[in-house]
Amino acid sequence: AGDGSGPAGSVVAAAGEPPGEPPAPQRVLFPPTFSVSEIKNKQRRHFMFVRWKQQQRKEKLAARKKRRKEREALGDKAPPKAIPKTIENQRVYDETTVDPNDEEVAFDEATDEFAPYFNRQTVPKILITTSDRPRGRTVRFCEQLSTVIPNSHVYYRRGLALKRIIPQCIARDFTDLIVINEDRKIPNGLVLSHLPDGPTAHFRMSSVRLRKEIKRKGKEPTEHVPEVILNNFTTRLGHSVGRMFASLFPHDPQFIGRQVATFHNQRDYIFFRFHRYIFKSEKKVGIQELGPRFTLKLRSLQKGTFDSKFGEYEWIHKRREMDTNRRKFHL
């Protein structure tokens, strides 16, 4: 406006100027609560928002460079780097967290259902089956899973109840039973039962990717026994689940095959990846994903073999009671 008053963006003359002298440089005044969302024009609003984000990134990068130069100038006297706050390092303490030197935990692990495997008294033999009359995607997933787990066999169910399959598995010396459930032709659940005395874990499965759906995947996996990596299974419940996964694979991995199966627990989600090491030089090594990949979420842990009607449960995930704090984890 010509009189110096008006909405945001108007020009205001500096106060206290002596008469007859040229006006001082003028500045644009914005309302103190100005927000990009107040701009009515959609294209203009988007343009201003992008420019604001770019400015923020530049300021953040400049501050980071400044801190790095200050640390280089101080040398050994530089203060330690600040640890960023994450949900993981702010985790609520769990009283069931396992101490490696706990005698009670050592005794329980020496006498539990997985002790014969860890004492090398049994050799893993896995049966992989599906829900009744599986579809193509579930069938292909089971076939690829059998190439990841050595000494595993695929059986496609057609009307046979799970309670009738378990006695047959025990009679044929199978040590574990894996059941892949599906919904609308998509794998959505996994039941893992350790034979002959349990326990049985029920997982929700998501983010399933077959080999052909993975970018930059490697060649087909070989028959070598892979190395197994278990990450962040720290509580008593997590130890039980980790021991279940470990008992699926034979002892003494064949490192010449350069294959590794990883079960990574993060915020109670278990991410499975299957990789191959690629040695580029004596000092550099890369990894190449072979697939398949999937994510598991523990729903229940049941004592004994599968029994949906009379089974005794050690742990059940209850959303309304257990998910009240984002920083509380159970595995």
UniProtKB/TrEMBL annotation:
<feature type="region of interest" description="Disordered">
    <location>
        <begin position="1"/>
        <end position="27"/>
    </location>
</feature>
<dbReference type="GO" id="GO:0030687">
    <property type="term" value="C:preribosome, large subunit precursor"/>
</dbReference>
<dbReference type="InterPro" id="IPR007109">
    <property type="entry name" value="Brix"/>
</dbReference>
<comment type="function">
    <text>May be required for ribosome biogenesis.</text>
</comment>
<dbReference type="Pfam" id="PF04427">
    <property type="entry name" value="Brix"/>
</dbReference>
<dbReference type="GO" id="GO:0000470">
    <property type="term" value="P:maturation of LSU-rRNA"/>
</dbReference>
<feature type="compositionally biased region" description="Basic and acidic residues">
    <location>
        <begin position="70"/>
        <end position="79"/>
    </location>
</feature>
<feature type="region of interest" description="Disordered">
    <location>
        <begin position="54"/>
        <end position="82"/>
    </location>
</feature>
<dbReference type="GO" id="GO:0042134">
    <property type="term" value="F:rRNA primary transcript binding"/>
</dbReference>
<keyword id="KW-0698">rRNA processing</keyword>
<keyword id="KW-0690">Ribosome biogenesis</keyword>
<protein>
    <recommendedName>
        <fullName>Ribosome production factor 1</fullName>
    </recommendedName>
</protein>
<dbReference type="GO" id="GO:0005730">
    <property type="term" value="C:nucleolus"/>
</dbReference>
<feature type="compositionally biased region" description="Low complexity">
    <location>
        <begin position="8"/>
        <end position="18"/>
    </location>
</feature>
<feature type="domain" description="Brix">
    <location>
        <begin position="124"/>
        <end position="307"/>
    </location>
</feature>
<dbReference type="GO" id="GO:0000460">
    <property type="term" value="P:maturation of 5.8S rRNA"/>
</dbReference>
<dbReference type="InterPro" id="IPR044281">
    <property type="entry name" value="IMP4/RPF1"/>
</dbReference>
